[in-house]
Amino acid sequence: MAFRSRPSHLPLENDSSSRFLPSMVALMVALLTFSIVGLAVLHDTVGRWATQIDGSLTIQVPPTGFSQLEPEERDAALEDRVQTIIAAVSGQPGVARIAELSPDKMVELLEPWLGPNEMISDLPIPRIIEITPSTGFDYNVLEATVSKTAPEAVLDDHRIWLERISDVAVSVEMALLALIGVLFAATTLSVFFATRSGLSIHKSIIELLHLIGAPDSYIASQFARHTMRLAFLGSLIGIGIALPVSILIGYLGLRAGWQIPTALHLPLFFVLVLFVPVTISAVAWLTAKRTVLQVLRRML
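The structure corresponding to this sequence follows.
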């Protein structure tokens, strides 16, 4: 073994747990690390979306009543309607900024879906007005103003979509937290059953140690140290698998235009991830010692 301890009177290095436990812990730690990284990415992404959406509103101005006009006449009439709305809303308290999304920008946004500019120009596309609210803004007053000025216009403050996204994100975060708990529980159970297996294998030697005066605490310490070394080794293997894969996915995401979550830039996050082997080892040591002491009280 790569991790050695004080000499033991129990030949624990040769039993099946020395092969089973590290691989099981490595799998659990890799999944645990992926879950922690996924939780950080999800939380940061939803927070960024909420910040971007929560500080803006939009008014959609459809070309209602202008469908029979020529494209040039329709655009001119729609522009007059847009300017009327902007003039009515701009004087409202709490409106920091109001501006129309330019037709060229609309074409740029729609071109990947609807085709070249020549095709888009013939379509009755609504105009978009963007509003940035500030202190003193009243949504109800804005809604009343828009309804009075242009009843066909649609005011969208994104609250419904933001609430839906937040609900889904919270559900996924809770699921990831539950998965982390399940992985910790599965690791603990793996240590428990591996320890019970080791006790069964070395039952005759344990009885002999008792005959020569070895206390239960000594035998339990032997198992606990052995299990802790195996769990620590498995944890390092799991981290060694999960971190490079996560970094590779992040690199590919950067090339695809994703933003790396701010939480992943914090040194504290890497400290927490690297703290996983220590935590798993401590849990393995405690589980093995308590299991051995409980079994020995019933066995002997």
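The beta strands are 57-61, 95-100, 127-133, 154-156.
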